[in-house]
Amino acid sequence: ASRRIHSSKRWSDSNLSLRNLPSLGKENDRLKALYPLDGRFVGSGHFTTIRACEQNGKTFAIKIFHTFKMPPREIAEIDQEIRFLRKLDHPRIVRLLDTFRGDSDTICCVMDYFSRDLFDLIEDGGGFKQGHYEIILQIAEGIDYLHTNGVCHRNIKSENILINGDGTARNRYVVNIIDFSSAIDLDSNPGSTNHNNELVGTWGFFAPELVTRDGSDPRAADMWSFGCTVMELAISHGDFQRWHRRYEAIMADEHPSRVINEDLRKELSAVIQKYEAFPVMMVIAGLLQVNIDFRLTAADALAWLRDDDNNTLEDDHEDATSPCGSPLY
């Protein structure tokens, strides 16, 4: 499956933090001396290249932004990312270790190295495993930290979840959330907690209230996107793709929001019922509540996931309890 496409976004024109970045020189000799590239290509985008580098025997990732001919919107996106990562500090949020200009046309960000993202793990197949509960729990820990500190990510999806480890006892999963270019600071934007209808994120992961313009709390929208991400991990690839297409079709319809929400509830109910033997579907049902008054908060989801009675693939899970105060349909 191909990577998903971001929505259009509105960006601030401010890039004050970028103006203050130290330069390592046009020849890049100092860059190569400080962070020797080890030859591994990690990834790339329209204006970025990500390479592995080493320092003192430890591997890091260096994200190189090629700013020549980069649109102002993209420059502002880099600034947004740097501003958030400089102030966030949590084991589930990717660390920004260093930032500098490689030359007049490149901006470099050094971060911890991760071998893959959640999208890669899902694409590898193999179905939902017991160890995947640890991935879901760690994502919830990261989102809870963000929301507790007044930050909304606004683009939670599997491509923005980095993973190390293989889930074994000797090499447990370690998860980091990345990409804060769409994030918003509620302390700096107090009005954004009510009726924030800015369509930001990735199609198929938008909360329905963003599409229907019914007003939203961006924290609740984060939790819907988290629910879609957990569903992508938990159910079969084919079933998720069918759900994804149906959701996009429903959200593209021009019927009143009441009709759209009724159709959406029917589609969600069908998926939940098909996989109802898995306790994880209980938390998915709570996260994908169309009514945001009943949708789980990050703290709610975290408490449920930390309950050992709920984190099992055993057929007999009578002790598992629903985290949701309202039925899905």
Structural descriptors:
16% strand; 2 domains; Protein kinase domain-containing protein; single chain; five-stranded antiparallel beta sheet; protein serine/threonine kinase activity; Phosphorylase Kinase, domain 1; ATP binding; Transferase(Phosphotransferase), domain 1; three-stranded antiparallel beta sheet; Prot_kinase_dom
Describe this structure in words.
It holds the Pfam family Pkinase. GO terms for molecular function: ATP binding; protein serine/threonine kinase activity. Residues 36-313 form the Protein kinase domain. It comes from Octactis speculum. The protein has 329 residues and is an alpha+beta fold. It has helices at residues 16-19, 29-34, 72-87, 118-123, 132-148, 208-211, 218-234, 237-252, 257-274, 280-287, 298-305; strands spanning 37-44, 48-55, 58-66, 96-103, 106-112, 116-117, 151-152, 161-164, 174-177, 184-185. The chain folds into 2 domains: 32-112, Phosphorylase Kinase, domain 1, CATH 3.30.200; 116-310, Transferase(Phosphotransferase) domain 1 (Transferase(Phosphotransferase), domain 1), CATH 1.10.510.10. The protein is 36% helix and 16% strand. Strands 1-2-3-5-4 form a 5-stranded antiparallel sheet. A hairpin with a 3-residue loop joins strand 1 and strand 2 (48-55). Helix 5 runs antiparallel to helix 7, helix 5 (132-148) runs antiparallel to helix 11 and helix 8 runs antiparallel to helix 9 (257-274). The radius of gyration is 20 Å and the shape is globular. The two termini are 30 Å apart.
